[in-house]
Amino acid sequence: MSTSSDLADRLQSYLGPAGVITDWRDLESYAVDWRKLFPGKPACVVRPNSTEQVAQVVRICREAGVPIVPQGGNTGLAGGAVPDASGTQVVLSLNRMAAIRNVDPIGMTIEAEAGCILKVAQDAASTAGRLLPISLAAEGSATIGGVVAANAGGVNVLRYGMTRNLVLGLEVVLPDGTIANGLRRLRKDNAGYDWKQLFIGSEGTLGVVTAAVLRLLPRPKHSVTALLSVPDPDAALTLFGLAQDDLGDQITAFELISRTSLDLVARHAGLKPPIAEGEWFVLIEAASSLAGLREAAEAMLGSAFEREIALDGVIAESGAQAAQLWALREHVTESEAREGKSVKHDVSVPLTAVPLFLVDVGKALADEVPGTRVNAFGHLGDGNIHYNVLIEDGHDAGAVNRIVHDVVASHGGSISAEHGIGQYRVGELVRYRSSVEMELARKLKLALDPQGLLNPGKVLSP
Amino acid sequence: MSTSSDLADRLQSYLGPAGVITDWRDLESYAVDWRKLFPGKPACVVRPNSTEQVAQVVRICREAGVPIVPQGGNTGLAGGAVPDASGTQVVLSLNRMAAIRNVDPIGMTIEAEAGCILKVAQDAASTAGRLLPISLAAEGSATIGGVVAANAGGVNVLRYGMTRNLVLGLEVVLPDGTIANGLRRLRKDNAGYDWKQLFIGSEGTLGVVTAAVLRLLPRPKHSVTALLSVPDPDAALTLFGLAQDDLGDQITAFELISRTSLDLVARHAGLKPPIAEGEWFVLIEAASSLAGLREAAEAMLGSAFEREIALDGVIAESGAQAAQLWALREHVTESEAREGKSVKHDVSVPLTAVPLFLVDVGKALADEVPGTRVNAFGHLGDGNIHYNVLIEDGHDAGAVNRIVHDVVASHGGSISAEHGIGQYRVGELVRYRSSVEMELARKLKLALDPQGLLNPGKVLSP
């Protein structure tokens, strides 16, 4: 403990009183993730206010042999940004580095510091007439640094890709305390290894993201939202193909929702879908700068009804109606929580494997853990299903988890589509990724962080 | 030499006679790049026909301590895929691994082996009603493996991004001869480090790409092509902003062409632009699945004329007319070659810096190497300018090169937007990238290829 407090003193003498938190009452929001699944205990929290300060903090901690846990908005779902319970890890919060350095509506870029709140960056882009298309539930608290470090997904991935696709430049403090400045605003740059890719999605285990240049997109002027009932997930896939044919890359969202999901929303949120019948539903949104989007969408849906790949449907007549349709989707998670205990999975499989995946995992669960109920919904257009299993007392959550992930693996899928590994899935990653891939990851970790001081125990077991 | 021929024997006994080429007459097309700038001399050329054979070749060469140069279609512009002149390097050609393993028009993916010709993959996607949007001059010879290893750009980057944005899965033989199989067909996968990013664009220096899963896109049904004269590059930028506002992300190309470029095309290719006057020209193409594209484009151009950011213009009335407009752009390089000697640059700067970059570099050249003429054209929408300088006898090509790249650096640009570093720009990369970035690159190289046997001397100096 004396080492810890010596270190806190050294950090405080460098950063000043505002730069270090040691009082337990002020530490708590940094110590535990927001779902309260991973309670940790930091040695202290440091809050540098410049890249140079971040670098110096990393050097001081390195000299002392003390592990660092980088943290943004602490909105992660895998415990990747909170310390362990040893009391020896330093949380490095980026929340005092929150400036937007530049918005360029012609060059279509935004440069922001790591601690900038995602929503603030979205608003700055919007004010400049452009779109920062990273959009997720936690956008009011999540930070640019966290979004980059986690390679965040969200509701616009189908059209705009994951965060990785939008990162043009990155500034990173390396584990040895040097600053790698790659804050270039270039759409094309094939001059040498694209090292920034390593840090995107590596959850703070290879370096501390301190600033990023992100790509902006044009803001679409027209949008169409529709809710449809479909005979089954196979028909939903055929409908997806038809939508690609007729609306092209203007489709923003293609969400699959099960009857169970809508029943939960009706029961707990009091929201009723405008379509009474059906076992499976699809929520489609498309947006474009071109007029003629709605006509094309109506023609596409007409053809879907004719081919009986859609059975019933509603097109929103206003923004308010579109919001009502989205509310059905957005209340699924909360309604599930009110229903009782569940085992959650954020998985992806190849798009065309989704129907068979649903059948296979349903069968395996019915056989091996009878009495559970399935609440499946998610981003069908991305092959990303939130496959949540409602359990009762006596059901083995670990067994459920294993069954779902084994079926995911059998379809060539991923056990973490967008939430990352953090500390939550570290053990499972080893089970589902090949030893060659794990060895490659360990080589990269060792090359960049030979002392293992950066976010140890996350992504890779220590 | 006996070692070389021993090795060739070992390789031949493993691969069979079709798998190894040692006769000089058959070696030549593998030994020299197609521009004949980098004549090399391989120990031999090996042509494995499976991933396992590639792995075994790498193991055999490793044991013998012999360097390997991976090669696809040998269409690179930086000498990255040809051996040095020592006679000791083995060229590993992927051209017998050319299968398309799968095309999925609903899941929107194509899986192909490294030696598959880009054009063949494009056609397979097209037959399935989808678009593989990587398109470049060498597409009839370039291979999927080469395109991935080079992170190829081309004419669709503005809309679809570089090759990196389209790679979903990758299979790579590592320098130690193990096979890393990441051939996943997933749109979202945040399970561990995304190691495949390291190999994309690293020009065969970290591993041998043996197969890839690429993302497909919908095929647009409508397109519009227009050639405009603009007062200056600043106006071209303003026009770009207007086009983003009005046509959104449906713009496929936004090319800047100088008067000099069109004069060269008129003189040497006999093609005359349909617009007589002007110093600067913009070629715009947009494509969409939605009708209404042309009306939106016409309205946008009307507003551009009104605001005097465009002076004169022609919209193609047919596919043939569109092809005529594109022919003006496509004949620039060839016409330049007929004019005489030139020093070529493939540079990028932030989009909004392009006008000032053009002014700055023009001034510096006029001051320091008087009498040269500038042929500037390129992908303005990507900030990527092919800034070529026509020189006469007595002009110092090295000085021209240095001046252009120094001005690029002063604007935060890149000395290689899409062509890569290969052996051509190895020395310059060290000059223009920070020591921290170079050190990071060397760490990665050392971690993956400690013996330095994979494509030595490319990207990084040996």
Automatic annotation (TrEMBL), chains A, B:
BP GO terms, sorted: respiratory electron transport chain
Classification via SUPFAM superfamilies: FAD-binding/transporter-associated domain-like, FAD-linked oxidases, C-terminal domain
Domain FAD-binding PCMH-type: 38-219
Record has Flavoprotein as a keyword: yes
Organism: Microvirga aerophila
The protein, known as: D-2-hydroxyacid dehydrogenase
InterPro entries with a match to the protein in the record: FAD-bd_oxidored_4_C, FAD-bd_PCMH, FAD-bd_PCMH-like_sf, FAD-bd_PCMH_sub1, FAD-bd_PCMH_sub2, FAD-linked_Oxase-like_C, FAD-oxidored/transferase_4, Oxid_FAD_bind_N
Family per record: Belongs to the FAD-binding oxidoreductase/transferase type 4 family.
One GO MF term attached to the UniProt entry: FAD binding
Listed Pfam families: FAD-oxidase_C, FAD_binding_4
Entry annotated with the keyword Flavoprotein: yes
Names of the cofactor(s): FAD
Keywords: FAD, Flavoprotein
